[in-house]
Amino acid sequence: MKAVVLEETRKISVREVPDAEMQDTTDVMLRITSTAICGTDLHFYEGRMRGIEGGVIGHEPLGVVEEVGSTVKNVKKGDRVVVPTHICCGFCAMCVEGHSSACLTTNPGAAGAAYGYPNKGGYQGAQAELLRVPFADANCLKLPGEPGDNWEDDFVLLADAFTTGYHAVAIIEIAPSDTVAIFGAGSVGLLAAYSARLRGAARVYVVDAIAERLEKAGELGAIPINFLHGDPVEQIREQQSKWRSGPAFRQEKPLGGVTCAIDCIGFQARSKTDYSREDPLWVTEAIAELINPAGRVGIIGVWPLKDPNGIEPSLKEGKLTVPWSKLFNNNARISMGRDDDKRWNSKLRDMIITGAAKPSQVVSHRLSLDEAANAFAKFDARQEGYIKVILKPQGTSGKI
Question: pTM for this structure?
Answer without folding.
Answer: 0.95
